[in-house]
Amino acid sequence: MAQDDLDRILFGEQEIMPSSGFVAEVMAAVQREAVAPPAIPFPWKRALPGIAAAVSAVALVLGSLLMGAKAHGPTLADLPPGVTSVLHVAHQMGAGWIAIALVISLVSVKLATGLAVGRT
Amino acid sequence: MSGADDKADVVRVLAGDVSAFTEIVRRWQGPLVTLAYRFCRDRGRAEEMAQEAFLRAYRGLAQWRGEGAFSTWLFALATNLYCTELRRIPARAVPLELITEPRDAHRHDAAYEQADTERVVRRAVLALPAKYREALILFYFHDMDVAAASASLNIPEGTVKARLARGRDILRKKLAPRLFAPMVRKEA
């Protein structure tokens, strides 16, 4: 098939005329959108203390581990008492396994989505 | 279609006159539905996709800074939506290998054959891998303008040219034997 044939066929397509009620339907949707209350923004001001606390806690744990490792190898006893109790509870709940399961699920979903999109 | 009209309507909409968006929809409904139809080959779905494109344009109207043409911005937005939508729920494309049937040697109706060939080629475009299909659809939609296709797809012109070449190559290889081989045999 010559390129000219392809160009002629694909270039020569007619424009599609929308149905008579198309403009009205679009404008009805736009009007609904216009009167809808605006989306509630994420409450950064309220969330900020929590985020700051979480970041500080992670930094504290990492700092403690690094300092303990420098001195005599990392042990749980080097961590602040609050952190050790949290880790103890997490260990009892099997948090490690839950984390592994979540990671495997995430990887599976990403892989499946990637394969599905790649096949289109 | 005037860029000044688009700009004036956008200014009115942004100032709170929602009804001014009607003129934008009237002006661009044909091109947006046509583009959607070329992606999905389904009239009902094309109108749904075009409606969603207009809705997104309305929501994001403030993002158009007025530097480029409104149509460029609108087509890029619509293209992005159509590509995403078609990747999510693909058009009912028949594999390239199954698209054509051998020609009926007893049928000599030229108009019928021409229409049949055009139908087969258009369906074959839908069966191409997404990146080649998108480049071909946008290139022909924009009157064979690579720059416009590149702006709509938001990829470099060189990439569009490469995808066009590859897409056409696949089409030629897949379509030539089925569409023209029996005719060649008959002529020989």
Write up this protein:
The complex is a heterodimer of chains A (120) and B (188). By secondary structure, chain A is mainly α. Among the domains of chain A are: 46-78; 80-120. Chain A contains 5 helices and no strands. Chain A has helices at residues 3-11, 22-35, 44-72, 81-93, 95-119. The mean pLDDT of chain A is 82. Chain B is mainly α and 188 residues long. Chain B folds into 2 domains: 3-88, RNA polymerase sigma factor, region 2, helix turn helix motif (Rna Polymerase Sigma Factor, Chain: A, Orthogonal Bundle), CATH 1.10.1740.10; 96-187, Arc Repressor Mutant, subunit A. In chain B, helix 4 (70-88) crosses helix 8. Chain B is elongated and about 60 Å long. Residues 181-188 of chain B have low confidence and may be disordered. At the A-B interface, helix 1 and helix 2 of A face helix 2, helix 3, helix 6, helix 7 and helix 9 of B.
End-to-end separation of chain B: 51 Å
Q: How would you spell out the order of helices and strands of chain A?
A: HHHHH
Helix content of chain B: over 70%
Overall morphology of chain A: elongated
Assembly type of the chains comes to heterodimer
CATH superfamily of the largest domain in chain B: Winged helix-like DNA-binding domain superfamily/Winged helix DNA-binding domain
Q: How is the main sheet of chain A built?
A: none
Give the overall pLDDT of chain A as a whole number.
Answer: 82
Percentage beta strand of chain A: under 5%
Shape label of chain B: elongated
Q: Please tally the helical runs of chain B, counting DSSP H or I stretches of 4 or more residues.
A: 9
Compute the average pLDDT of chain B: 85
Helical element count of chain A?
5
